[in-house]
peptidyl-tRNA hydrolase (Xenopus tropicalis), 189 residues
Amino acid sequence: METCEQESADEAQGAVEVNMDYLLQLKELDIPEEEAKKALIVTGNVSAEEAAIFYFESLERLNEELEDEHSFHKMVFVVNMELPMGVGKIAAQVGHAAVGLYQNLIKEPKTREMAYKWDEYGAKKVVLQGSSTAHLLELQALALSMNLPNYLVQDAGRTQIAAGSYTVLSIMGEEESVNKVTGKLKLLN
């Protein structure tokens, strides 16, 4: 005579069994075996099609949640085009802007997380044209008003331009927010 515990274990074990034909069909769709089994169990082993729909809809929901949770960040560099800087000088100044902003970001726990997300999801960087020093300062003020981390490079004056010149403004944040500050600027070419 079976006890209640044995009956429950047998029922649970029966519930875990999946239709092997359906499982093979799901594996042919490149669905991992364990995920295919879960999908079949959740959908009651009705069909491979039902399980596949469940699996792919679950993936879609997960991707949407990840996008919401890990909104995409980017770092932009606005180059002061009124200054007579050569290509090498611009490259060096953009490098200063990237390093300076990143160093500031990792100092604070709140912005450190932003820097890590940015790095983890591709470290997107865009170099844009700013028309003048006044333009860079306006963009910086807007970035500050939106609580976007930024860094303004001031040149030491050892090579092509006067000491104290503002060369590049870097801004970091969620792509949508950064675009509100720099979205209308032209790419540096």
Summary: Helices lie at 4-16, 20-28, 33-42, 48-69, 87-107, 109-120, 133-145, 175-182. The mean pLDDT is 85.
